[in-house]
UniProtKB/TrEMBL annotation:
Lineage: superkingdom: Bacteria
Catalytic residues as annotated in Swiss-Prot or TrEMBL: K359
Gene Ontology CC annotations of this record: cytosol
Protein name: Glutamine--fructose-6-phosphate aminotransferase [isomerizing]
EC number: 2.6.1.16
Subunit (UniProt): Homodimer.
Catalysed reaction equations from the record: D-fructose 6-phosphate + L-glutamine = D-glucosamine 6-phosphate + L-glutamate
Span of the signal peptide: none
Classification lineage: Bacteria, Bacillati, Bacillota, Clostridia, Lachnospirales
Biological process (GO), any one: protein N-linked glycosylation
Domain SIS stretches: 41-180, 213-354
Keywords assigned by UniProt, alphabetized: Aminotransferase, Cytoplasm, Glutamine amidotransferase, Repeat, Transferase
Organism the protein comes from: Mediterraneibacter butyricigenes
Length: 364
């Protein structure tokens, strides 16, 4: 059933190009984005004043990326909450608020409770869900399915990747409906979206290189992930992947926050993974990398092809192919997933079923 792969996690990582294509292609028709299941006209979209994204774990991280993309492209204010916080904080839901609940399983107790709380306060709720017919899918006003197929490994990979795609589709659609992008810009964005499956495939081909690199860090005590903007969101997901399967302590920091405390933890040999895919932030990131390196950190950089400056501030570089600045998370996550996976394999961990974790958290 693992189709020749050693673990479900590995199999599911390799299923990502197909999962992404399956989530994307039915929603691109005649050069336009069609999300029928949304049940919203362009006029309805223009009436959205605020979006609240609510989720747990990796789905929450997808939501954080969604915030940068939606606000950047469609200029709609977005708040992102962990479901366990949202449901108890008496959130302000006014006329024109769209609540988006993201969940692979559709059964996460806190996310389901947050959905009910939002509905009770009068919000329209959209679910981005992977499991067809699950509780969240049934109770939401509308459901946009991620077509990742069954995900078995506790650590999510392909469902997370499809959540990002669903959020990009919504952002482009909303941006167009609100007149924030032109038809030509939309066509370019769609072209970039269509390239993602092949680009992910190509990045998965780096497997051996990443395994070799991971084997050097099997005894790491702490790993820090740093990034700015959208790359901070992906740092959080990269850090979660590593810690949940390998049991190595890791944290993600907004790179600009390092100086406000965390940098005191960096010692000779500490591994710092720096994600820098946003051209306008390269310089700022490079100076943060120089700072940690001068304190002895070993810096692994994940950046876009063409960023040659990066080599002067890092010890090891993984390049991702060029794409629109809003879509880089879909590519940057691939080496980070592989890194977490191979560290866990090298340490002999139970990769598909990490200790203390369950695939679907149905208790609070
Ligand atoms: O089924 P859900 O998407 O609602 O699950 C949310 C989290 O429990 C889940 O993403 C968890 O953080 C994963 N183990 C991360 O790999």
């Amino acid at each position: 059933e693992k189709g020749g792969y050693e673990h479900f996690m590995l199999k599911e990582m390799y299923e990502q190009p197909k999962a992404i294509a399956d989530t994307l292609s039915p929603r691109i028709q005649d050069g336009k984005i069609e999300i029928e299941e949304l049940g919203m006209t362009d006029e309805d979209i223009r009436a959205i004043k605020k979006i609240n994204i609510v989720a747990c774990g990796s789905a929450y991280h997808a939501g954080l990326t969604g915030k940068y993309v939606m606000e950047g492209m469609a200029r709609i204010p977005v708040e992102v909450d962990m479901a366990s916080e949202f449901r108890y904080r008496d959130p302000i839901i006014e006329e024109g608020t769209l609540v988006v609940i993201i969940s692979q399983s559709g059964e996460t107790a806190d996310s389901l409770a947050a959905l009910r709380e939002a509905k009770q306060k009068g919000a329209k709720v959209l679910g981005i869900v992977n499991v067809v017919g699950s509780s969240i899918a049934r109770e939401a006003d509308s459901v946009m399915y991620t077509w990742a197929g069954p995900e078995i490994a506790v650590a999510t990979t392909k469902a997370y990747s499809c959540q990002l795609i669903a959020l990009y589709l919504l952002a482009v659609k909303f941006a167009r409906a609100k007149g924030k992008i032109t038809d030509t810009q939309m066509a370019e964005l769609i072209e970039d979206l269509k390239k993602i499956p092949d680009q992910v495939e190509m990045l998965l081909g780096n497997q051996e290189k990443i395994q070799k690199f991971a084997n050097r860090y099997l005894a790491a005590k702490d790993v820090f992930f740093i990034g700015r903007g959208i790359d901070y969101a992906i740092s959080m997901e990269g850090s979660l992947k590593l810690k949940e399967v390998s049991y190595i302590h890791s944290e993600a920091y907004a790179a600009g926050e390092l100086k406000h405390g965390t940098i005191s933890l960096v010692e000779e040999g500490t591994l710092v993974a720096a994600v820098l895919t946003q051209e306008d932030l390269y310089k700022k990131m490079i100076s943060n990398m120089v700072e940690v390196r001068s304190r002895g950190a070993f810096v692994l950089a994940v950046t876009q092809e063409g960023n040659d400056e990066v080599t002067k501030a890092s010890d090891y570089v993984i390049y991702i192919p060029n794409t629109n600045k809003y879509f880089t998370n879909s590519l940057a996550i691939i080496p980070l997933q592989l890194f977490g996976y191979y560290i866990a394999v090298g340490r002999g961990c139970d990769v598909d079923k990490p200790r203390n974790l369950a695939k679907s958290v149905t208790v609070e």
